[in-house]
Amino acid sequence: MLDSVSHNAYLPNTMICEPLMSWSEFFGTMEENYNPFDHQIDNDKACLRKGSIKSQEFQSHNRTSLQSSHLWEFVRDLLLSPEENCGILEWEDRDQGIFRVIKSDALAKMWGQRKKNDRMTYEKLSRALRYYYKTGILERVDRRLVYKFGKNAHGWQDSKL
DNA sequence: CCTCACTTTCCTGCTT
DNA sequence: AAAGCAGGAAAGTGAG
């Protein structure tokens, strides 16, 4: 697993933005019969292409890698990297760790990319998020698409490492 | 091979 | 009516 990480470090800069050309095709064929709103698709596709597993260790903050194996870390890192985020997630209250999912489908798709699972949906992703309430990684917020980091989540406060 | 934590999948019912 | 939310149940997965 260290291989795949260090592997990217050796790539020339020109490769960084398009490490996985197959995915754009993958989504091109996949979303055709999935979403009727074409302009939205184009947006998300561009976003997903851009936000795929690129640019890790050379980023300003190291932990912002989108490489994390756990869902909450993936979400946290997405929140912390506006470049990849593309308006998928947004802070609602930065200090309290409250955030909102703006594009639920895009988020699911992106998580699916990370896990190489093209059947991921927001419905299923959100089930996984709900399990985090138990463990204190997330706290419940009674607003649609709004979540809050809990006591046992770390690394989301920008100031402290 | 087994166990454990985490995640995925599916489902029923409820809320916005 | 569509999209989210709540969790239970059960299967899948990867690490150790």
Quick synopsis:
It is built from eight helices and four strands. With 161 residues, the chain is an alpha+beta fold.
How would you summarize the topology of this molecule?
Elements: H1 2-9, H2 13-16, H3 21-30, H4 38-51, H5 71-80, H6 82-85, E1 89-93, E2 98-101, H7 104-115, H8 122-135, E3 138-139, E4 146-149
The chain binds a DNA duplex (16 and 16 nucleotides) through helix 8.
Query: Spans with pLDDT under 50 lasting ≥5 residues?
Result: 1-38, 53-64
From the spread of the alpha carbons, the general shape counts as globular
Strand elements, count: 4
* Largest β sheet strand count, sense and barrel closure: 4 strands, antiparallel
Oligomer: single chain
Report the order of strands and helices.
HHHHHHEEHHEE
Which strands sit side by side, in order, in the main sheet?
1-2-4-3
The radius of gyration computed from the alpha-carbon positions, rounded to a whole number of angstroms, is 16 Å
Kindly name the structural category. alpha+beta
Q: What would the average pLDDT be, to the nearest integer?
A: 73
Query: How many helices does DSSP assign?
Result: 8
Range of helix content: 40-55%
Ends distance: 24 Å
